[in-house]
Amino acid sequence: MKGEEPSRSLFGIPLTERPKWQQFLLCSSGFFFGYLVNGICEEYVYNRLQFSYGWYFTFVQGFVYLGLIHLQGFTTKQMVNPWNTYVKLSGVLMGSHGLTKGSLAFLNYPAQLMFKSTKVLPVMIMGAFIPGLRRKYPLHEYISAVLLVVGLILFTLADAQTSPNFSVVGVVMVSSALVMDSFVGNLQEAIFTMNPETTQMEMLFCSTVVGLPLLLPPMLLTGELFTAWNSCKEHLYVYAVLVFEAMATYVGQVSVLSLVAIFGAATTALATTARKAVTLLLSYLIFTKPLTEQHCSGLLLIAMGIVLKLLPDYKDSNPQKQKRKPQHCEDHIGQDEERNSLV
Which end of the chain is least crowded, N or C, by CB within 10 Å? Predict the structure, then answer.
Protein backbone atom coordinates (compact mmCIF):
# COMPACT_ATOMS: atom_id res chain seq x y z
CA MET A 1 0.00 0.00 0.00
CA LYS A 2 2.84 2.41 0.80
CA GLY A 3 4.26 2.10 -2.70
CA GLU A 4 1.00 3.08 -4.38
CA GLU A 5 0.11 6.61 -5.40
CA PRO A 6 -2.73 7.89 -3.17
CA SER A 7 -6.14 8.16 -4.82
CA ARG A 8 -7.17 11.77 -5.39
CA SER A 9 -10.38 13.31 -6.65
CA LEU A 10 -11.75 16.80 -7.25
CA PHE A 11 -15.38 17.26 -6.17
CA GLY A 12 -16.14 13.63 -6.97
CA ILE A 13 -14.16 13.58 -10.24
CA PRO A 14 -11.37 10.95 -9.97
CA LEU A 15 -7.92 12.30 -10.86
CA THR A 16 -5.43 9.52 -10.12
CA GLU A 17 -6.18 7.29 -13.10
CA ARG A 18 -6.23 10.14 -15.61
CA PRO A 19 -3.24 11.34 -17.69
CA LYS A 20 -1.26 14.19 -16.17
CA TRP A 21 -2.50 16.71 -18.73
CA GLN A 22 -6.13 15.91 -17.86
CA GLN A 23 -5.37 16.24 -14.15
CA PHE A 24 -3.76 19.61 -14.78
CA LEU A 25 -6.64 20.77 -16.99
CA LEU A 26 -9.33 19.79 -14.47
CA CYS A 27 -7.55 21.37 -11.51
CA SER A 28 -6.69 24.50 -13.49
CA SER A 29 -10.30 24.89 -14.65
CA GLY A 30 -11.45 24.75 -11.03
CA PHE A 31 -9.13 27.44 -9.74
CA PHE A 32 -9.56 29.61 -12.86
CA PHE A 33 -13.31 29.67 -12.26
CA GLY A 34 -13.04 30.18 -8.49
CA TYR A 35 -10.50 32.96 -8.53
CA LEU A 36 -11.88 34.82 -11.53
CA VAL A 37 -15.16 35.16 -9.63
CA ASN A 38 -13.18 36.02 -6.49
CA GLY A 39 -11.25 38.76 -8.30
CA ILE A 40 -14.37 40.43 -9.68
CA CYS A 41 -16.12 40.29 -6.28
CA GLU A 42 -13.08 41.67 -4.45
CA GLU A 43 -12.69 44.61 -6.78
CA TYR A 44 -16.40 45.36 -6.54
CA VAL A 45 -16.41 45.33 -2.71
CA TYR A 46 -13.14 47.21 -2.19
CA ASN A 47 -12.95 49.67 -5.06
CA ARG A 48 -16.61 50.24 -5.89
CA LEU A 49 -18.19 49.98 -2.42
CA GLN A 50 -15.08 51.27 -0.59
CA PHE A 51 -15.28 48.51 2.08
CA SER A 52 -11.68 47.82 3.09
CA TYR A 53 -11.92 45.23 5.85
CA GLY A 54 -9.45 42.55 4.82
CA TRP A 55 -9.14 40.73 8.15
CA TYR A 56 -12.90 40.69 8.76
CA PHE A 57 -13.73 39.50 5.26
CA THR A 58 -11.17 36.69 5.62
CA PHE A 59 -12.82 35.79 8.93
CA VAL A 60 -16.26 35.55 7.30
CA GLN A 61 -14.81 33.57 4.39
CA GLY A 62 -13.34 31.02 6.83
CA PHE A 63 -16.77 30.19 8.27
CA VAL A 64 -18.19 29.73 4.78
CA TYR A 65 -15.33 27.30 4.06
CA LEU A 66 -16.13 25.29 7.19
CA GLY A 67 -19.80 25.08 6.21
CA LEU A 68 -18.96 23.87 2.70
CA ILE A 69 -16.43 21.33 4.01
CA HIS A 70 -19.09 20.00 6.39
CA LEU A 71 -21.50 19.60 3.47
CA GLN A 72 -18.79 17.61 1.67
CA GLY A 73 -18.94 15.11 4.55
CA PHE A 74 -15.47 15.65 6.01
CA THR A 75 -15.00 14.91 9.74
CA THR A 76 -11.99 15.03 12.05
CA LYS A 77 -12.00 11.20 12.13
CA GLN A 78 -10.63 11.30 8.57
CA MET A 79 -7.52 13.28 9.59
CA VAL A 80 -4.14 11.60 9.06
CA ASN A 81 -1.93 14.41 10.44
CA PRO A 82 -1.78 15.82 13.99
CA TRP A 83 -3.26 19.28 14.58
CA ASN A 84 0.14 20.85 15.32
CA THR A 85 1.21 20.13 11.74
CA TYR A 86 -1.05 22.95 10.62
CA VAL A 87 -0.13 25.64 13.15
CA LYS A 88 2.66 27.27 11.15
CA LEU A 89 0.77 26.83 7.87
CA SER A 90 -2.39 28.42 9.29
CA GLY A 91 -0.53 31.43 10.66
CA VAL A 92 1.08 32.38 7.35
CA LEU A 93 -2.05 31.47 5.37
CA MET A 94 -4.40 33.71 7.36
CA GLY A 95 -1.81 36.48 7.46
CA SER A 96 -1.46 36.31 3.70
CA HIS A 97 -5.22 36.40 3.13
CA GLY A 98 -5.77 39.30 5.51
CA LEU A 99 -2.91 41.43 4.16
CA THR A 100 -3.86 40.68 0.56
CA LYS A 101 -7.47 41.73 1.02
CA GLY A 102 -6.52 44.69 3.21
CA SER A 103 -4.02 46.01 0.66
CA LEU A 104 -6.91 46.74 -1.72
CA ALA A 105 -7.74 49.74 0.45
CA PHE A 106 -4.43 51.29 -0.67
CA LEU A 107 -3.82 49.74 -4.11
CA ASN A 108 -6.09 49.33 -7.07
CA TYR A 109 -6.84 45.71 -7.92
CA PRO A 110 -4.55 45.34 -10.99
CA ALA A 111 -1.51 46.65 -9.08
CA GLN A 112 -2.16 44.28 -6.18
CA LEU A 113 -2.71 41.43 -8.59
CA MET A 114 0.59 42.02 -10.37
CA PHE A 115 2.50 42.07 -7.09
CA LYS A 116 0.96 38.73 -6.16
CA SER A 117 1.82 37.38 -9.61
CA THR A 118 5.53 37.44 -8.78
CA LYS A 119 5.17 34.92 -5.97
CA VAL A 120 6.62 32.16 -8.16
CA LEU A 121 10.15 33.52 -7.51
CA PRO A 122 9.98 33.55 -3.68
CA VAL A 123 8.17 30.17 -3.79
CA MET A 124 11.07 28.69 -5.77
CA ILE A 125 13.68 30.22 -3.47
CA MET A 126 11.87 29.18 -0.29
CA GLY A 127 11.51 25.62 -1.60
CA ALA A 128 15.26 25.17 -1.13
CA PHE A 129 14.94 25.70 2.64
CA ILE A 130 11.69 23.93 3.58
CA PRO A 131 12.37 20.61 5.40
CA GLY A 132 11.14 17.65 3.38
CA LEU A 133 11.53 19.46 0.01
CA ARG A 134 14.98 21.05 -0.51
CA ARG A 135 14.07 21.86 -4.10
CA LYS A 136 16.61 22.91 -6.74
CA TYR A 137 15.51 24.50 -10.01
CA PRO A 138 17.36 24.91 -13.34
CA LEU A 139 18.60 28.32 -14.45
CA HIS A 140 15.89 28.89 -17.08
CA GLU A 141 13.20 28.67 -14.41
CA TYR A 142 14.82 31.46 -12.41
CA ILE A 143 15.14 33.53 -15.60
CA SER A 144 11.43 33.09 -16.23
CA ALA A 145 10.69 34.25 -12.69
CA VAL A 146 12.91 37.32 -13.15
CA LEU A 147 10.98 38.20 -16.32
CA LEU A 148 7.81 38.13 -14.25
CA VAL A 149 9.33 40.51 -11.71
CA VAL A 150 10.60 42.95 -14.36
CA GLY A 151 7.19 42.88 -16.00
CA LEU A 152 5.64 43.68 -12.63
CA ILE A 153 7.92 46.70 -12.13
CA LEU A 154 7.00 48.13 -15.53
CA PHE A 155 3.32 47.56 -14.90
CA THR A 156 3.22 49.04 -11.41
CA LEU A 157 5.21 52.12 -12.48
CA ALA A 158 2.63 52.72 -15.19
CA ASP A 159 -0.19 51.98 -12.76
CA ALA A 160 1.14 54.48 -10.22
CA GLN A 161 0.76 57.19 -12.88
CA THR A 162 -2.73 56.24 -14.07
CA SER A 163 -4.35 55.12 -10.80
CA PRO A 164 -5.39 57.48 -7.98
CA ASN A 165 -5.40 54.51 -5.58
CA PHE A 166 -1.72 53.59 -5.17
CA SER A 167 0.27 54.06 -1.94
CA VAL A 168 3.39 52.85 -0.16
CA VAL A 169 1.27 51.32 2.64
CA GLY A 170 -0.44 49.06 0.11
CA VAL A 171 2.91 48.03 -1.38
CA VAL A 172 4.25 47.10 2.08
CA MET A 173 1.11 45.09 2.87
CA VAL A 174 1.04 43.15 -0.38
CA SER A 175 4.82 42.55 -0.21
CA SER A 176 4.41 41.07 3.27
CA ALA A 177 1.62 38.87 1.92
CA LEU A 178 3.97 37.80 -0.87
CA VAL A 179 6.61 36.64 1.62
CA MET A 180 3.96 34.65 3.50
CA ASP A 181 2.77 33.11 0.21
CA SER A 182 6.28 31.78 -0.40
CA PHE A 183 5.93 29.71 2.77
CA VAL A 184 2.32 28.62 2.19
CA GLY A 185 2.77 26.67 -1.05
CA ASN A 186 5.96 24.96 0.07
CA LEU A 187 4.57 24.02 3.49
CA GLN A 188 1.50 22.55 1.81
CA GLU A 189 3.64 20.56 -0.61
CA ALA A 190 5.85 19.34 2.26
CA ILE A 191 2.80 18.03 4.16
CA PHE A 192 1.47 16.27 1.05
CA THR A 193 4.94 14.86 0.33
CA MET A 194 5.65 13.50 3.79
CA ASN A 195 2.16 12.07 4.23
CA PRO A 196 0.64 11.30 0.79
CA GLU A 197 -2.62 10.19 2.43
CA THR A 198 -3.38 13.83 3.31
CA THR A 199 -6.50 15.02 1.49
CA GLN A 200 -7.33 18.46 0.16
CA MET A 201 -10.32 18.65 2.51
CA GLU A 202 -8.17 17.93 5.56
CA MET A 203 -5.64 20.55 4.53
CA LEU A 204 -8.29 23.25 4.03
CA PHE A 205 -10.33 22.31 7.10
CA CYS A 206 -7.42 22.19 9.55
CA SER A 207 -5.81 25.34 8.15
CA THR A 208 -9.09 27.21 8.54
CA VAL A 209 -9.94 25.94 12.04
CA VAL A 210 -6.46 26.71 13.38
CA GLY A 211 -6.21 30.00 11.48
CA LEU A 212 -9.54 31.64 12.36
CA PRO A 213 -8.60 32.47 16.00
CA LEU A 214 -5.36 34.00 14.72
CA LEU A 215 -7.40 36.65 12.91
CA LEU A 216 -8.97 37.99 16.11
CA PRO A 217 -5.90 39.84 17.56
CA PRO A 218 -5.27 42.05 14.48
CA MET A 219 -9.01 42.77 14.18
CA LEU A 220 -9.24 43.77 17.84
CA LEU A 221 -6.00 45.78 17.87
CA THR A 222 -6.99 47.81 14.80
CA GLY A 223 -10.67 48.08 15.79
CA GLU A 224 -11.62 46.54 12.46
CA LEU A 225 -13.89 43.91 14.03
CA PHE A 226 -16.43 46.43 15.36
CA THR A 227 -16.08 48.90 12.49
CA ALA A 228 -16.60 46.20 9.87
CA TRP A 229 -19.48 44.66 11.84
CA ASN A 230 -21.32 47.99 12.03
CA SER A 231 -20.66 48.85 8.37
CA CYS A 232 -21.81 45.47 7.08
CA LYS A 233 -24.85 45.54 9.37
CA GLU A 234 -25.96 48.69 7.58
CA HIS A 235 -25.33 47.10 4.17
CA LEU A 236 -26.37 43.47 4.58
CA TYR A 237 -26.07 42.77 0.85
CA VAL A 238 -22.28 42.84 1.35
CA TYR A 239 -22.60 39.52 3.17
CA ALA A 240 -24.33 38.04 0.14
CA VAL A 241 -21.39 39.13 -2.03
CA LEU A 242 -18.91 37.74 0.51
CA VAL A 243 -20.67 34.36 0.73
CA PHE A 244 -20.86 34.10 -3.06
CA GLU A 245 -17.18 35.02 -3.32
CA ALA A 246 -16.21 32.51 -0.62
CA MET A 247 -18.13 29.71 -2.36
CA ALA A 248 -16.29 30.41 -5.61
CA THR A 249 -12.95 30.74 -3.83
CA TYR A 250 -13.60 27.43 -2.07
CA VAL A 251 -13.71 25.73 -5.48
CA GLY A 252 -10.47 27.50 -6.36
CA GLN A 253 -8.77 26.59 -3.07
CA VAL A 254 -9.55 22.88 -3.33
CA SER A 255 -8.37 22.91 -6.97
CA VAL A 256 -5.11 24.65 -6.03
CA LEU A 257 -4.46 22.14 -3.26
CA SER A 258 -4.97 19.36 -5.81
CA LEU A 259 -2.36 21.01 -8.05
CA VAL A 260 0.08 21.32 -5.13
CA ALA A 261 -0.38 17.67 -4.20
CA ILE A 262 0.11 16.40 -7.76
CA PHE A 263 2.48 18.89 -9.43
CA GLY A 264 4.21 20.76 -6.59
CA ALA A 265 4.26 24.35 -5.29
CA ALA A 266 6.35 25.98 -8.06
CA THR A 267 4.26 24.66 -10.96
CA THR A 268 1.12 25.64 -9.07
CA ALA A 269 2.52 29.17 -8.58
CA LEU A 270 3.09 29.41 -12.34
CA ALA A 271 -0.44 28.25 -13.06
CA THR A 272 -1.93 30.74 -10.62
CA THR A 273 0.17 33.47 -12.21
CA ALA A 274 -1.39 32.70 -15.59
CA ARG A 275 -4.79 32.98 -13.95
CA LYS A 276 -3.87 36.38 -12.50
CA ALA A 277 -2.97 37.64 -15.97
CA VAL A 278 -6.42 36.65 -17.25
CA THR A 279 -8.08 38.26 -14.22
CA LEU A 280 -6.07 41.41 -14.80
CA LEU A 281 -7.21 41.75 -18.40
CA LEU A 282 -10.82 41.13 -17.35
CA SER A 283 -10.44 43.85 -14.71
CA TYR A 284 -9.49 46.39 -17.37
CA LEU A 285 -12.27 45.24 -19.68
CA ILE A 286 -15.05 45.14 -17.08
CA PHE A 287 -14.12 48.25 -15.11
CA THR A 288 -12.86 50.23 -18.15
CA LYS A 289 -9.47 51.49 -16.95
CA PRO A 290 -6.78 53.11 -19.10
CA LEU A 291 -4.26 50.62 -20.52
CA THR A 292 -1.00 52.32 -21.62
CA GLU A 293 1.92 51.08 -23.72
CA GLN A 294 3.95 50.58 -20.55
CA HIS A 295 1.18 48.36 -19.17
CA CYS A 296 1.36 46.29 -22.35
CA SER A 297 5.16 46.01 -22.15
CA GLY A 298 4.90 44.70 -18.61
CA LEU A 299 2.24 42.18 -19.61
CA LEU A 300 4.40 41.03 -22.53
CA LEU A 301 7.38 40.31 -20.25
CA ILE A 302 5.11 38.45 -17.87
CA ALA A 303 3.78 36.34 -20.75
CA MET A 304 7.38 35.60 -21.85
CA GLY A 305 8.24 34.48 -18.33
CA ILE A 306 5.24 32.17 -18.17
CA VAL A 307 6.02 30.60 -21.56
CA LEU A 308 9.71 30.13 -20.69
CA LYS A 309 8.77 28.34 -17.47
CA LEU A 310 5.87 26.34 -18.85
CA LEU A 311 7.29 24.80 -22.02
CA PRO A 312 10.42 23.05 -20.65
CA ASP A 313 8.68 22.16 -17.41
CA TYR A 314 6.09 19.87 -18.93
CA LYS A 315 8.53 17.76 -20.91
CA ASP A 316 10.15 16.38 -17.80
CA SER A 317 7.72 17.05 -14.99
CA ASN A 318 6.15 13.59 -15.21
CA PRO A 319 9.42 11.59 -15.08
CA GLN A 320 10.58 13.65 -12.12
CA LYS A 321 7.32 13.04 -10.38
CA GLN A 322 7.55 9.32 -11.03
CA LYS A 323 11.13 9.15 -9.79
CA ARG A 324 10.32 10.94 -6.58
CA LYS A 325 7.34 8.75 -5.68
CA PRO A 326 9.21 5.57 -4.77
CA GLN A 327 11.76 7.55 -2.80
CA HIS A 328 9.08 9.08 -0.61
CA CYS A 329 7.57 5.66 -0.01
CA GLU A 330 10.86 3.88 0.70
CA ASP A 331 12.03 6.57 3.07
CA HIS A 332 8.86 6.61 5.16
CA ILE A 333 10.89 5.47 8.21
CA GLY A 334 12.33 8.97 8.54
CA GLN A 335 9.04 10.78 7.96
CA ASP A 336 8.33 11.28 11.66
CA GLU A 337 11.55 13.25 12.10
CA GLU A 338 10.80 15.37 9.00
CA ARG A 339 7.22 15.92 10.14
CA ASN A 340 8.43 17.25 13.48
CA SER A 341 10.71 19.73 11.74
CA LEU A 342 7.67 21.33 10.08
CA VAL A 343 6.12 22.25 13.39
Answer: N
Q: What is the pLDDT of residues 31-41, one digit of tens each?
A: 888 877 887 78
Length of the chain counted residue by residue: 343
pLDDT digits (tens, 9 = 90+) for 108-142: 766 676 677 667 667 777 666 665 555 666 776 67
Residue 14: strand, helix, or coil? strand
Amino acid at position 313, single letter: D
Report the C-alpha gap between 121 and 145 in whole angstroms. 5
Residue in 279, 261, 280, 260 with CA at minimum distance from that of residue 270: 260
